[in-house]
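Input/output pair, single chain:
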Amino acid sequence: MSLDPSEIRAMSREDKVRTLQDLMVELAKLRAQASMGTLDKPHRIRIVRKNIARILTILREEELNIKRGGGEDQKSGE
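Output:
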Protein backbone atom coordinates (compact mmCIF):
# COMPACT_ATOMS: atom_id res chain seq x y z
CA MET A 1 0.00 0.00 0.00
CA SER A 2 1.65 3.16 -1.20
CA LEU A 3 0.82 6.34 0.66
CA ASP A 4 -0.26 9.26 -1.50
CA PRO A 5 1.48 12.57 -0.65
CA SER A 6 -1.90 14.32 -0.36
CA GLU A 7 -2.95 11.71 2.24
CA ILE A 8 0.24 12.34 4.20
CA ARG A 9 -0.21 16.11 4.08
CA ALA A 10 -3.77 15.73 5.40
CA MET A 11 -2.49 13.89 8.51
CA SER A 12 -1.63 15.70 11.72
CA ARG A 13 2.04 15.85 12.69
CA GLU A 14 1.48 13.24 15.41
CA ASP A 15 -0.14 10.88 12.92
CA LYS A 16 2.77 11.34 10.52
CA VAL A 17 5.30 10.55 13.24
CA ARG A 18 3.28 7.53 14.40
CA THR A 19 2.98 6.24 10.82
CA LEU A 20 6.71 6.80 10.32
CA GLN A 21 7.52 4.76 13.43
CA ASP A 22 5.17 1.98 12.32
CA LEU A 23 6.79 1.88 8.88
CA MET A 24 10.29 1.74 10.38
CA VAL A 25 9.27 -1.22 12.55
CA GLU A 26 7.72 -2.91 9.52
CA LEU A 27 10.91 -2.32 7.50
CA ALA A 28 13.02 -3.89 10.24
CA LYS A 29 10.74 -6.94 10.28
CA LEU A 30 10.85 -7.22 6.49
CA ARG A 31 14.64 -7.01 6.47
CA ALA A 32 14.84 -9.72 9.13
CA GLN A 33 12.56 -11.94 7.08
CA ALA A 34 14.64 -11.27 3.98
CA SER A 35 17.84 -12.28 5.76
CA MET A 36 16.21 -15.53 6.91
CA GLY A 37 14.81 -16.20 3.46
CA THR A 38 11.18 -16.24 4.56
CA LEU A 39 10.06 -13.04 2.84
CA ASP A 40 6.96 -13.61 0.69
CA LYS A 41 6.81 -10.23 -1.06
CA PRO A 42 10.29 -8.74 -1.55
CA HIS A 43 8.89 -5.69 -3.33
CA ARG A 44 7.24 -4.68 -0.05
CA ILE A 45 10.65 -3.49 1.24
CA ARG A 46 10.88 -0.99 -1.59
CA ILE A 47 7.33 0.28 -1.02
CA VAL A 48 7.93 0.76 2.72
CA ARG A 49 11.23 2.58 2.09
CA LYS A 50 9.53 4.95 -0.35
CA ASN A 51 6.70 5.64 2.10
CA ILE A 52 9.26 6.45 4.81
CA ALA A 53 11.01 8.84 2.43
CA ARG A 54 7.70 10.51 1.51
CA ILE A 55 6.81 11.13 5.15
CA LEU A 56 10.29 12.43 6.01
CA THR A 57 10.23 14.75 2.99
CA ILE A 58 6.83 16.19 3.87
CA LEU A 59 7.83 16.64 7.53
CA ARG A 60 10.94 18.52 6.38
CA GLU A 61 8.90 20.68 3.99
CA GLU A 62 6.57 21.60 6.85
CA GLU A 63 9.55 22.38 9.06
CA LEU A 64 10.89 24.76 6.41
CA ASN A 65 7.39 26.07 5.58
CA ILE A 66 7.65 25.08 1.95
CA LYS A 67 4.30 25.21 0.20
CA ARG A 68 3.50 22.83 -2.65
CA GLY A 69 1.31 24.56 -5.21
CA GLY A 70 -0.50 23.40 -8.29
CA GLY A 71 2.23 24.70 -10.56
CA GLU A 72 1.76 28.46 -10.37
CA ASP A 73 5.07 28.83 -8.53
CA GLN A 74 6.88 26.74 -11.12
CA LYS A 75 9.01 28.35 -13.82
CA SER A 76 7.35 28.41 -17.19
CA GLY A 77 9.12 26.99 -20.21
CA GLU A 78 9.88 30.40 -21.69
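The chain is about 65% helix and 0% strand. The chain has a mean pLDDT of 89.
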